[in-house]
Amino acid sequence: MIRLRRLRSGDRVALVAPASSFPAEEVPAGVAELARLGLEAVYDQTVFDKDRFVAGSVETRVRAIIKAWEDPSIAALIAIRGGYGSAELLPFLDPRTLIEARKALIGYSDITALLTLYQRHGLAAIHGPMIDRRISKGAAAYDEDSFRRVMMSEEPAGDLRPPRLESFTGGAATGTLTGGTLTQLMASMGTPWQFDPAPGSVLFIEDVGERPYRIHRMLTQAAQAGLFAGATAIVFGEFPGCDEPGGDPAIRDVLRDFTKAFRGPVLFNFPSGHTAGATWTLPFGVTAEVAGGPNPVVRLLEAAVN
């Protein structure tokens, strides 16, 4: 794994819009919160571009990412919003520039496509808070502690024990943490950038607003594609808005039933990505230990930055 550049107080971070457009007022609120963390946010006015359902043309969005990768004064990139559009950029992003830059592009949801690009080329990737409705809303919408531990420390982040984390299956296992938003992972299948976890991976899977049968369909596709075959553990997110209207079936029960034959620990309700409360930061590409049972934990054994 290639570690990313660590964030330090005073660093400049570039706000980029690889996917959907967003309310303009989210940006100054996000800039102010990053300043409270000691970070100077910078951005080009093109982030406010709109082209139907995305934030500007492919060329505009690609240019902003490459510019930030190449600018030595920029320490990291933070996506403003997910939504749709990140996969369009993949053919135009040079992995050599990415590797040389070693700069995080922090995000989740549709940004999963770009996090997968990082991992395919041996870099750590940061599944963390974006500006829109997360960093812009302050501590109620993102977990500052995990953000600082993952992005601003050379030490492994250690034990992550969200209050509502629960265990479907006991035991303990170690592997390389990887994953993202299920819809985007499955959308990558059959492309040159498809999600392809190595044997021995800890899979983190989350989503939002999908009915249980749709989640089950995507998990079935993932299983038939062999994505679970070499996994040592599975960590599910919160899956907000994924219960069937009326509550039956509940997504919790669907996930539990789907993984009942899995030989390894399975956790549920880890609040990274789409969450009802504050979203936590997870580094993909690092070695992690997952323990189930009465005191479930995700333990990060490596740092993603230096």
Topology:
Layout: E1 12-16, H1 26-36, E2 40-42, H2 58-70, E3 74-79, H3 95-101, E4 105-106, H4 112-120, E5 125-127, H5 144-151, E6 158-160, E7 166-169, E8 172-181, H6 182-187, E9 201-206, H7 212-224, E10 233-236, H8 251-258, E11 266-268, E12 282-284, E13 287-291, E14 297-300
Parallel strand pairs: 1-2, 1-3, 3-4, 8-9, 9-10, 10-11
Antiparallel strand pairs: 5-12, 6-14, 7-11, 8-13, 13-14
Helix pairs in contact: 7-8
Q: Quick gist of this model?
A:
The protein has 306 residues and is an alpha/beta fold.
How would you describe what is shown here?
The protein is of the alpha/beta class and 306 residues long. Helices cover 25% and strands 20% of the residues. The strands form three sheets. An eight-stranded mixed beta sheet has the order 6-14-13-8-9-10-11-7. A four-stranded parallel beta sheet has the order 2-1-3-4, sandwiched between helices. The chain has a two-stranded antiparallel sheet with strand order 5-12. The longest helix has 13 residues. The protein is globular, with a radius of gyration of 18 Å.
What characteristics describe this protein?
306 residues, alpha/beta, eight-stranded mixed β-sheet, four-stranded parallel β-sheet, 14 strands, 25% helix, 20% strand
